[in-house]
Design brief:
94 residues, 90% helix
Length: 94
């Protein structure tokens, strides 16, 4: 099959999706570091921790579901990368 405009569109989409995935993992790594630091801080102040978590419980619940949604998007993007790579192989000459 001849390399055409579709090939370059798929290459661009592949590159942007891979870049997004790398950025997502970097953000998640930094969020995990922040969570660990906050956990260590709360170990030193258990009473404050209890009341703060109770006060911000709705926010924690929303954050939990938001994390699920973002990880779903990440795994969907990973699957898209696999599919795009297979599609790009069909453009290359045998």
């Amino acid at each position: 099959m001849e390399i055409n405009k579709g090939y370059y569109i798929l290459r661009k989409r592949l590159e942007s999706t891979e870049k997004w995935m790398e950025g997502f993992l970097e953000v998640e790594k930094n969020r995990e570091i922040s969570r660990k630091a906050l956990h260590e801080y709360y170990k030193q102040k258990p009473v404050f921790s209890f009341f703060f978590r109770l006060y911000t419980l709705p926010t924690f619940i929303i954050t939990y579901f938001s994390d699920i949604i973002w990880w779903k998007r990440y795994w969907q993007a990973a699957r898209e990368v696999e599919i795009i790579k297979k599609e790009l192989e069909s453009y290359e000459p045998n």
